[in-house]
Amino acid sequence: MNTQKPVVGVIMGSQSDWDTMKEATEVLTALGVGFEARIVSAHRTPKRLVEYAETAADRGLKVIVAGAGGAAHLPGMVASMTALPVLGVPVESKALSGMDSLLSIAQMPGGVPVGTLAIGKAGAKNAGLLAASIIALMDDQVAEKLTAWRTAQSDAVAAAPVDQ
Fold first, then answer.
1. Which has the closest alpha carbon to 25: 40, 6, 42, 43?
2. Which strands sit side by side in the sheet containing 86-91, from one edge to the other?
3. How many CB atoms lie within 10 A of CB 48?
4. pLDDT at residue 113, as a whole number
5. Mean pLDDT for each 10-residue chunk of the chain (164 residues)?
6. Could you tell me which residues come within 8 angstroms of residue 61 by beta carbon, excluding any fewer than 6 positions away?
7. Which end of the chain is more exposed for a tag (fewer CB within 10 A), N or C?
8. CA atoms within a 13 Å half-sphere pointing along the CA-CB vector of 146
């Protein structure tokens, strides 16, 4: 359970998106970044979406990671209602394997930016890392943990194939 003051909001359009979006929260937890995770559907809970986006900064959030599948309007709608950075994660869909989600998030009109990550779990993990990188600009402890994370990742890569 995350007990730190939330500075990152991790939102998704439905419960089924959690399998993907928990990747972002696992990274944030490992790096000591406080977050909140919520289901906020652009289509099924529009009033919740408006309230979430309009109050995010006042509640102390600095970044929002928004995952959505299919039409994937959630990241763009949130970005239209807050000046906070919004990172969009295209959740893999059954119909078009996430390409519909990717294009919906990436093709934002000029003036309403959404940082778009890869489709699926890799995108969610990278969104967590990118959110932590943004927080690291204002939090030295997170910066140190992020540097250690990247160093450990590099150190884990063998210099030569194992069977050689």
1. 6
2. 35-39, 8-12, 63-69, 86-91, 115-116
3. 15
4. 96
5. 85 97 98 98 96 98 96 95 98 92 94 97 98 98 97 92 79
6. 6, 7, 8, 9, 36, 84
7. N
8. 19
Tokens of 74: 């959630």
Query: Do 87 and 114 meet the contact criterion of CB atoms below 8 Å apart?
Result: yes
| For the chain, counts of helices (H) and of strands (E) | 6, 5
pLDDT value of position 94? 86
Which residue matches tokens 């890392």?
A: 129
Inter-residue contact 22 to 125 (CB < 8 Å): no
CB 137 within 8 A of CB 100: no
| Closest to 2 in 3D by CA, of 43, 32, 22 | 32
Name residue 13's amino acid: G
68 in helix, strand or coil? strand
User: Distance (Å, rounded) from C-alpha 19 to C-alpha 21?
Assistant: 6
As a whole number of angstroms, the distance between CA 44 and CA 144 comes to 40
DSSP letter string over 125-136? HHHHHHHHHHHH
Backbone angles phi, psi at 85, to 5 degrees: -65, 135
